[in-house]
C-alpha cells in the first residue's frame, strides 16, 4: 500500500466489490487481496477563513476502511478570496506550501504561508 494519499475534493466515486456502495479511493492489498477504501464525506468539507488563521481546523472527514491517511501534499485546485476586498483568486497552488499574489483592489500583497496539517483519528 502507498505511504501517501493525495486528498482531492473533487473525486469520482469508485464502486466497491460486491455492490457494497462506493468510495473515493479503493485499493486492493497485494498480500491478502482485501479491498480497502477511503471515502471523503462530502458534507463535512468546510472552508478555512482568515479568522481560522494560526490554528488547526477540521476541514474534511474521511471514512477509512483498512487504509489510513498519513500525509497531505497540497497541490493546485485551491481558491482564495480577499478578506477585505472580496477579490477572488481561483487558481491557488499550494505545492510549495506557500502562495502569494497581489490584490489590486486594496493595493496589497496577499498570501498563504507555511501550510501545515494534522490528521485526528476519531
Structure, briefly:
The chain is an all-beta fold and 122 residues long.
What does this structure look like?
There is one protein chain. It is built from no helices and nine strands. The protein is an all-beta fold. The protein is elongated. Residues 1-10 have low confidence and may be disordered. Helix content is 0%, strand content 30%. A three-stranded antiparallel beta sheet has the order 3-4-5, with no helix packed on it. Strands 1-2 form a two-stranded antiparallel ribbon. Strands 6-7 form a two-stranded antiparallel ribbon. The chain folds into two domains: 1-68, no CATH class; 74-114, no CATH class. The two termini are 22 Å apart.
Amino acid at each position: 500500500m502507498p505511504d501517501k494519499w493525495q486528498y482531492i475534493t473533487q473525486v469520482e466515486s469508485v464502486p466497491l466489490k460486491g455492490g457494497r456502495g462506493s468510495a473515493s479511493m479503493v485499493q486492493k492489498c497485494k498480500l491478502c487481496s482485501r479491498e480497502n477504501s477511503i471515502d471523503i464525506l462530502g458534507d463535512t468539507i468546510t472552508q478555512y477563513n482568515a479568522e481560522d488563521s494560526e490554528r488547526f481546523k477540521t476541514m474534511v472527514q474521511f471514512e477509512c476502511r483498512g487504509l489510513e491517511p498519513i500525509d497531505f501534499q497540497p497541490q493546485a485546485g485551491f481558491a482564495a478570496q480577499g478578506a477585505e476586498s472580496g477579490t477572488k483568486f481561483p487558481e491557488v497552488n499550494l505545492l510549495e506550501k506557500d502562495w502569494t499574489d497581489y490584490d489590486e483592489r486594496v493595493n496589497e500583497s496577499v498570501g498563504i504561508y507555511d501550510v501545515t496539517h494534522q490528521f485526528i483519528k476519531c
